[in-house]
Specification:
alpha/beta; 224 residues; 8 strands; five-stranded parallel sheet; three-stranded antiparallel sheet
């Protein structure tokens, strides 16, 4: 029997950071679903495909093979054999990801791959529709959020550390726009699952969030 923990929430909530630490704490495999979508977006950008050109996006995505692997305990993302882990965390790729992930064929391809990964191992997945669509029967569902300003400040700091030029105002605007797109897309919109635990992390540090999630998992019967 394998356990599944689903973490959903808006952009910049810190889901990936927390999910990685929680996975390490519980001994689970962390599946970064956002990285998988970002890999698809990267290849669309490389080919010069506009986000609005759905047929071209779908055609490109259908031909790609995305694999999540771990090397020395660090997750790596491969597309058609190429390791793209270091190339998918730019603002441009993030924006493209938000746009092309609204297309049903793109989501169907990713969901099938994500579900197959969760069938044979204890996993933690984070994204926008994990608890509602990808793992609807997950043992634990958490909806992790924070205020727009706090999320923008976190993402701005991340970009600054990576040397990505931006302003706090532009990042906050991007967060708001992505929230709207994610919550209003026609396929698998971002929303809190009916049986998910709401966790607002606006006033919490990383360690506090990890401990809170571990406590929720324990309450739901996950013992490691």
């Amino acid at each position: 029997m394998s356990y599944q923990i689903a973490i959903d929430g808006p952009a910049g909530a810190g889901k990936s950071t927390i999910a990685k630490k929680l996975a390490a704490k519980l001994g689970f495999v962390y599946v970064d679903t956002g990285a998988m979508y970002r890999a698809m977006a990267l290849f669309c950008l490389r080919k010069g495909i506009a986000a609005e050109d759905e047929p071209a996006v779908v055609e490109t995505v259908e031909k790609l093979k995305v694999i999540i692997a771990y090397e020395n305990g660090v997750q790596q993302v491969f597309v058609d054999g190429e390791n793209v882990s270091s190339q998918i965390r730019t603002a441009e790729v993030g924006d493209m990801t938000s746009r092309i992930s609204t297309y049903l064929p793109v989501r169907e391809k990713m969901v099938a791959l994500q579900q197959s990964l969760a069938e044979v191992q204890n996993v933690i997945m984070d994204g926008r529709d994990i608890g509602t669509c990808v793992l609807p029967n997950a043992d634990v569902k958490i909806y992790m959020t924070a205020s727009v300003r706090v999320r923008a400040e976190r993402r701005y700091k991340e970009y600054q550390e990576k040397g990505i030029p931006c302003t706090l105002e532009s990042v906050e605007k991007d967060v708001e726009e992505r929230d709207y797109r994610d919550m209003h897309r026609s396929h698998s919109p971002l929303r809190q699952a009916d049986d998910a635990v709401l966790l607002d992390t606006s006033e919490m540090n990383i360690d506090e969030v990890v401990e809170a999630m571990a406590a929720i998992a324990l309450e739901k019967g996950i013992v490691v």
